Amino acid sequence: MPFSHHSHSGQFCGHATNTLEEVVRDAIRKGMTTFCMTEHIHRERLDFYPREEEDHTPETLEMLYDDFYHEARRLQKAHADKIQLFVGFESEWIRDSSLGSIQRLLEQYPVDLFVGSVHHVYTVPIDYDTPLYHKARDIGGGTDEQIFADYFDAQYSMLQALKPPVVGHFDLIRLKSDDPDKSFRTWPNVWEKLMRNLAFIAKYGGVLELNSSSLRKGMSEAYPQVKICKEFVAMGGRFTLSDDSHGIDQVALNYGKVLGCIKKAGITEVCHLAPASGSIAIHDERFPNVGWRTVSISELGSHGFWKK
Length: 308
Known about the structure:
Number of strands: 11
Number of helices: 10
Shape: globular
Largest sheet: 7 strands, parallel
Strand content: 15-25%
Order of helices and strands: EHEHEHEEEHHEHEHHEHEEH
Strand order of the largest sheet: 1-2-3-4-7-8-9
Radius of gyration: 18 Å
């Protein structure tokens, strides 16, 4: 029953490890039933990470995603009797041209889903390392409060333009902040923008991922924080599970702790991607081959995965 809708591999991502097939085989070994392969999309040269230009050009990054897509579809067929695999990408929302890049990718590749994420504010990476986060924060005036507010504004623009089926690490902005576990309610303006974004996601039917990567990075709760999840529950919003793994050591890592966050937030059910069928309705016409299946937390918790 456990599943993930957000993953990477070292074969196609410079800051990950292991081949894509090794990641898939590890998910099978751990008893996962649904696993989504969602590699990063290409970026323009001016948005390369430090030292990335030593290995890539914008053209080679485009080719890398093409290679990923075809390998992922091969694995989907090869392991169909053991696990439900789905193929997509994690988007980047950096500057005005980001929208065109994502739209072209959706036209070129018949993916099953994509994860809508924001990793940049003022075009500066906010999760790569602390110095770059501080650089972005200084551009906004030097306070966590202001860059948090501007992050949620950037996220709102992304949500409006793309309506992503899965919203990635909703509150990622806290990762490199002065106090990553601090409540967003501390700043009424930030909380208002956050609530606006949640309401929009709930309205168009987006799925909020419960992303375990924050736990391996030292935070006490998954993305999003439990208080945020409680608000989304009240809005009738839907959740799914993601490990945001970057190698086999992170596949399903800390899912036990995520289950604890789920219970604290009062979440009673989660959903996972499934092939469209008579009982699984298509939810988004852009992805005609898939829909969402809902499972109760009690059903999820009774799966043999947790014993492993």
